[in-house]
Amino acid sequence: MFETLILIMDSTVRLSTPLLLACLAGLYSERSGVVDIGLEGKMLGAAFGAGAVAFVTGNAWLGLLAGIAVAIALALVHGFASITNRGNQIVSGVAINFLAAGLTALLGQTWFRQGGRTPPLPEGGRFGNIELPFADEVRDIPVLGGIYSELLSGHNILVYVAFLAVPVTWWILFRTRFGLRLRAVGENPAAVDTAGISVVWLRYRAVIACGILTGIAGSYLSIAQSSGFIKDMTAGKGFIALAALIFAKWRPANAMFACLLFGFLDAVAIRLQGQEIPGVGEVPVQFFQALPYILTVILLAGFIGKAIPPKASGIPYLKERT
Amino acid sequence: MSAGQLPRWVDFGLIPVLNLVAAFLVSGLVVLLIGENPLEAVRILLWGSLGFGEGIGFTLFYATNFIFTGLAVAVAFHAGLFNIGGEGQAYIGGLGVAWACLAFDHYVPWWVTMPFALAGAAIMGAAWAFIPAWLQAKRGSHVVITTIMFNFIAAALMNYLLVNIMVKPGSMQPETRTFEAGGRLPFLNDFMPGIDFGTAPVNLALIIALLASLAVWLIVWRTRLGYEIRAFGANATAAVYAGISPVRVIVVTMLISGGLAGMMAINEIMGSQHRLLLEFVTGYGFVGIAVALMGRAHPVGIVLAAILFGMLYQGGAELSFEKPAITRDMIIVIQGLVILFAGALEHMFRPALVRFFTFSRTPAQQAG
Amino acid sequence: MSDTPAIELRNISKSFGPVHANRDIDLVVRKGSIHGIVGENGAGKSTLMSILYGFYQADRGDILVDGRKVHIGDSKTAISLGIGMVHQHFMLVDNFTVLENVILGAEGGSLLAGGVSKARQELRHLEEGYGLKVDPDTLIEDLPVGLQQRVEILKALFRGAEILILDEPTGVLTPSEADHLFRILQVLKDEGKTVLLITHKLREIMAVTDTVSVMRRGEMVATRKTSETSMAELAELMVGRSVLLRVDKKPAKPKETVLDVSGLTVTDSRGVQVVKDVSFTVRAGEIVGIAGVSGNGQSELLETLAGIRRATAGTVTIDGETIDLGETPVDPAEMRGKSMGHVPEDRHRMGLVTGFQEYENAILGYHNDPVYSKGFLLDIAKIRDAARSEIEKYDIRPPDCLLKTANFSGGNQQKIVLAREIERDPTVLLVGQPTRGVDIGAIEFIHKRLIEMRDAGKGILLVSVELDEIRGLADRVLVMFDGRIVGERSPETDEGELGLLMAGVHGEDA
Description:
The structure holds 3 protein chains of 3 kinds. By secondary structure, chain A is an all-alpha fold.
C-alpha cells in the first residue's frame, strides 16, 4: 500500500512539474496586470524548439535554451500586442495558441517529415534522472528511506528547478525591489508611473519572465519527460496551469499545492484506468480524460467563487489626462 | 477612445483590410521560410477556392460553418463576453441534429425533420453554454476559462457517446448509422439549376445561415434585448443603473451564442455527413473567433469574413495537394495571424491613420 | 530668502490636436511661498501641472527650476529636480502598506530589507518635522481619506521634494481636515518649501495662499497678491464676466410628502455599515440637500434609493406606496416605475454609455417603455425624434442626436442625463453631484432647471460635496457624517457650523 502511495506521489511530482512551471510563469505575468491565456501556446512552441534543437545537436542544454528562446519570442509578441499596442489580452493569448499549434506542426513536417513530430532524441539529447546522494544506501529505511530514494531522488534536473522556483519566486515577489514594483503595477499602474518607474518596461520584464518559465515547462515535456516532440503534446496543460493559478489566488506557495493537486488527480486517473471500482464498476476512459476539466470548473464555481485578481489585470495602461 | 476620430469607412473598411494585409504578409514570410513561393501559393489558393464550380461550392460550404460560429462569438462580444466555447457547443449541437434525424428520417421528408433538427441543434448548443453562462453571472467565474474547459469536456463526452452508445450496431467506427433521405438537407445543386457545384456539399444550411445573420442584426440593433446587451457590454455599471439585469443579459446572450454555434452542426451533420461522427467540428468554433474579429462583430462583416475563411480552407486544401510542403496547418497559422492582427493588434495602424486623416474636433474636446 | 524664483515658466504652450490646453503661459513662483492657481474646469490648470511634473511635454516654452533651464521629460526627472506632486486621485496601491507605498520607486537598492529600515527612520523624522503622523504598517485601504492624502504628501517629502504641487486637495476632506492640511502647508512654507495649490475654490485661495494666478481657457490672465484681491475679483477673472455667486430663486412652497425614508441601513460588501438608520422626508415642491464630505454614505444612500444597491433594513415610501427595502430586493426599473428619476453622481461610470449615440442614451433606463417599440422591434424614428426635442429644449450642443456621446462636453453630457430624467416628469428626482466637471454656463442652466422642477411641484433630493451648491439650491439642508444624518439646518446657516457638522462635531441624530 505504501509502495503504491509512493509510486503515485512519484508520478504526481513528474506530472505537476510542467504545470507548476507554467503556473509560476502565469503568476509573473498576471501579477503585473497582463492576463495570459497563451501559456499553452508558449509551452507548445518551447517543446518543439527544445525537441528540434536537442535532436539536431544531441545536447539537452542547447535544447533547453532553444525552448526558452521560442517561448520568450512568443511572450514578446503577446507583450507587444498587450502592452505597447494596448490590445485585448485574451485575444492575443488565443492568437498565440493558434500560431504555436500551426507553426510547430508545419515546421515539424517541413523539417522532419514525420507527421509533425521530431524523431526520438539521441543520447545526450534528453535530461536524465539524477540520483540524490546516498539514495541507494537509505532505500531500505522504512518510510523515510522510501520517500528519499523514490520520491525525492531520481528526477531529472528540471523537476528540481521547478520546485526550487517556488521559494525563489516568493522571494523575488516579496523581498526585492522588482517584486514590489511588479505587484504595484498590477494593482495601480498610475501609482507606479507617477513614481517615475516605467510601466511598460516593468510589464515587459514580467512577460519575459513568463516566457522563461513556460520555456522550461515546454522543454520539460519534450526533452525530459518524453523523448522528442509530438504534435499538440501540451494537450491542454497550459489551461490547467491557468486554472491552478486562479485557484492559488495568484500566490506562489498556493500555486505549488494547486499544481500538485492537479498532478495528483492526473496520476490517480492513469492508475484507475481499466480498474473496477467497487460499487461503481468500470469507469469509462473518457471520464478520466474529462476529469481535470470538470474539476477545474467545479473549483472555479464553488471554492473560489469570486477570486480577486490583481486590480489592473487585463486593463491596458493608458496615461490618463489628469 | 480619446484618440482622434476616424471616418466610419476607415474604421469599418480600411482598418480591417490593413489588418488582413498584415496577416497575409506575415503568412507569406512563413511560406518563404518553408521554401515555397508565396505568390504561387496565393494563385493556387485563389484558383482552388473560386476558380471552378466545385471549388466555389466548397468555399461556400465552409463559409456556412463560419457564419454560424462567427455570429455566435459576435453576439457574445456585444455583451462584453468572450465565448471561446463554440467548438464544444457546435459539437453538442450535433447531438440535437442526430437525435432528430435518427428519430424521423425513416418516416417523414426532410423538410419536416429540418425544423426539429435545427431546434435540436440550437437547444443543445445553448444548453452547453448554459453552465458557463450561469457561473459567470452568479459566481463571477470567468467565462473564458469555463468555456475552454467545456470544450474539452464536450470532446470527452461525445467520444464516449459515439464509441459506446450511439454507434451503428455491428460497426467499429465511432459514428451513428447514416441518415435516410428524411434526414438529409438538399444540396444547393439540387435546387439551384444555374451553377454546378460538383461534389461540394454546400446545402440549404447556407440559406439558414444567411437568415440567421439577418436575425442577429435585428436582435442586436433593433430590439430591446439587443439594446440591453449592447449597453451591458459597453458599460455594465450604467446597465445596472438602467435597470438591466446582468444575470439575465449574460445568460440570455450566452444561450443565443451557444445556440448559434450549435446550429453549425446542421450544415455538417444534416447537410453533408448525414451521420454523427467524431470531431466533425475540427476547429471551426475557433475560426468563428477570427471571423467575428475580422467582421467587427457585425453580420455583414461576418458573412464577408466567413467567405474569406471559406476561401482559405478550400484554397488551402487545394494548396496542400499541389504543394505538400504547405500542409493544412498553414491555415491554422493564418488563422492565428488574423486573430492577432484583427484582434490584439487592431489599434496598431490607428495612430498613423489618425495623423493621416487630421480630423477637426468638436469644441467638446476641452483640455484638462 | 533668495530672489530666484523656485519655478519660472516662460511661454509654455501645449495643444492636444486642435485644442489649446495651454497658451503662452508665464508664471513666476517665489521660493518659500504658497502660490495658488485658480481656474474653472477646462481652464488648463491640470495640464500645466502635468507638464511641470513631466507627465506631458510642452510644445513650446521654457521651464526654469531654481533659475536653471531644465527639460522635464518624465516624472523621474521632475522628482530629481525636487518637484513633488500630490494628485487629486491618489496614486496609491490599496493593498500595500503605507511604508510600501512611500518607498515605491525610492527603494534604495534592489533588495527591500535595507531600504525599509531607512524609510522607517525617515518617516519618523518627517512626522516630527511636519506633524504628518501615520502608522507605516497600515494598509492604505484601511485608512480614511484624509490620512491617505497624508501618505501622498509623505511620498513627495520622502523623495526630497522642495516644491510641492497639490491638485485639488480638499475635494475629499472635511472642512476641519482641510484646515489641518492648510496648517501643514504653513509648516512646509516655514521650512522653506514652495507650495503650488491648484484649486477652483476661492475660499481656500483667500485662506492660505500668498499669491494667486488665474487661468482661463488655457491662458494665464492675471496674477495677484492674495492680500490685494478678493473672491469677487478672482471669480470675475476666472469667468471673464461678473458672476452670480448665488442662485436666483423664490421661496419654496412645499406640499405633501412625496418621499419618506425611514430607518434606512445599508451594509457594504465588507460588512461595514455605510448608512446607519437614516430617516428623512422630501415634500413636493422642495429641494432637500444632503451636505457632507464624500465618503460619508451619501453615495450609498442615493444608490440604495435608486434601487441599485441592496439595503439591509428600512422602508421607503414614494407617493404613498411603501416598500420594505430590507425585505424586497428592488431594482432600478422598479424605482423608475414608481416615478423616481435618478441623475447619478458619476455620469461616465453610471449615467451614460459613452459609446452609444446620443439618441440611444436618451432612453437609457426607459428603453422598455412600450412607447418606444413597434411590435418586437424598437421604433428608432420615434426615439430619435424624442431625443431631438430634448436636445432643443435643453440647448445641448452640438445638436446631433446621432453623434457618439463621448464627443459631447461634460456639461452637455450632463444635460443629456438631466433631460432624460426630468422629461419623464418624475414625482421624485434623485440628483448627485449635478455640476461636477461642468463648465459655468451649463452650471447655471442646470441649477435653473432644478429650481424649475421644484417650482413645478416635484420633490428633489440633492447630494453634493460642493457646500455652496447645496446652500444655493436647497430649501432644507441635511448633513451626513459617518452614515448618519447628524443635523438639519436651513441653507442660510453659517458655513462654519455646517462644516463642524460635516466633520462630525456637535452632531445630533436627526
